Amino acid sequence: MTIKEQLAVRAARVEDFLVLCMRDRGIPERLLRSMEYSLLAGGKRLRPVLMLSWAGLLGSEGVTDRIMPFAASLECIHTYSLIHDDLPAMDDDDLRRGRPSNHKQFDEATAILAGDGLLTEAFGLMSAASIVNGLPADRVLRAVFVLAKAAGAGGMVGGQAVDMELTGCTDVPLDDLRTMHAMKTGALITAACECGAILAGAGDADVENAREFGRNIGVAFQIVDDVLDVVSDTETLGKPAGSDEAMGKSTYPSLMGLEKSKSLASDYVEIALTRLSGYYGAEQEFLWQLARYIVDRVY
Amino acid sequence: MTIKEQLAVRAARVEDFLVLCMRDRGIPERLLRSMEYSLLAGGKRLRPVLMLSWAGLLGSEGVTDRIMPFAASLECIHTYSLIHDDLPAMDDDDLRRGRPSNHKQFDEATAILAGDGLLTEAFGLMSAASIVNGLPADRVLRAVFVLAKAAGAGGMVGGQAVDMELTGCTDVPLDDLRTMHAMKTGALITAACECGAILAGAGDADVENAREFGRNIGVAFQIVDDVLDVVSDTETLGKPAGSDEAMGKSTYPSLMGLEKSKSLASDYVEIALTRLSGYYGAEQEFLWQLARYIVDRVY
């Protein structure tokens, strides 16, 4: 199987869980439709897949089944952030994954609440990994702590706030751009890997490898995203191509050019790969290929 | 001390924690100001105080200090819900606690993100009750599970969604109104009491007493809120009086009249008090008086 096919197989397993996870929770019908509209709109399920793979690499047999609710919670958090980012008061995007964005399909109030609901349910799912699936409570709680920090106001939410402040500023210093992205997209990808290791019961050195792998592919992923916004078309992206430039956002290509951006992404992937050098087996192989695939998308 | 003074003393203790809890977390400066603007805008701190008091009633010495981060997280969740409810796409309120609402003081994007940030940080604070303060992880995780359900799309968030749907409908059936309020405001008050008992390590019967006490004072609290919106003035409320009627919201007074509403609130408080009958001491006395105080505000 190609890495793309392997990714699809793993994403499908996450999908199977996501399809059911918001049901029978007493959620009002229209709100549930709005939450599922965005949660089940496809996507690579990169964050859950990363978590499951790191847990599989470092944990005992069956650990990936037991942490599935936790992995799914990452997709809930990612989805809520997309719904809120698309709102008129934020990036004002009408299109997401080739379909009307949530507030276009429903309405603004429902989109705000669907995001709030997904974020809150995410933490319920995390605790379910222990309460329903029997993972040790201290591991799960430590992962909740790490994830709340990554997704919160000093992480993902703060990154979006900084992004809004920087929008319209030309010549943003590269360091500020890097910090913003590290918060906005990097923190959750990093936490996905780190929490996979924590949930598997790994020791400190393994947890650090997972975290640093995540941090570096997170940067590469963002650079590639910026590059794709320039070189790809709207149909392939599922959202308007060239939207960064149209919104006056500084990006890696706008600050350092396309070729240098691509080469920088490759450098970050190489650093990430060093964190895999001490491991063996199918999960190591998968993570290795996945890291390469992130940057190969632009070639 | 009167119950009002006792409540103020306990609120001040929560306040002391809230003042510091968002600092040194790497939150961008303007976002932090926006979060603290609403979090530190006063308020009775009813939910944390209820949690601390139930934990004090049922737990061992020092338990209230250890669960303080968890208690504070309730105020973060309550505050985020107010910020989002006030947004133009929702209730469109310009005034909150006598000051401009968050999106008026800052801007809409910042208000959305401040709410998202407070909600996410809340779960970080909950896990800190174990990771920093050493409470048993299984207790804390069970409380996280209960709280996520109460605050989520089948609870508080769902209640707001139903409230939006019902707004403008006259003659909403009383049962629908009760269900909506049970989700929108009741669920978090109920969870505050229940989680106080859980965090104290109480047994099932005590946890049930805490939960049912919370459920009943929650209903009473909402009825009284509706009554105050009719009989009070804008200055006392800190928000526009008569706003329910102006927005075409069905309320207890609009469906059953003022006197019947007041008497119904008293009935719920009486039911709540039966749940305190087996306990003794200062915390029992405080909870008893607090329950009475809720309904006394309208006399």
From TrEMBL, chains A, B:
PANTHER family reported in the protein's UniProt record: FARNESYL DIPHOSPHATE SYNTHASE (PTHR43281:SF1)
Keyword terms, alphabetized: Isoprene biosynthesis, Magnesium, Metal-binding, Transferase
Necessary cofactors: Mg(2+)
Pfam family, one: polyprenyl_synt
InterPro entries: Isoprenoid_synthase_dom_sf, Polyprenyl_synt, Polyprenyl_synt_CS, Prenyl_diphosphate_synthase
Top-level taxon of origin: Bacteria
CDD domains, A to Z: Trans_IPPS_HT
Protein name: Farnesyl-diphosphate synthase
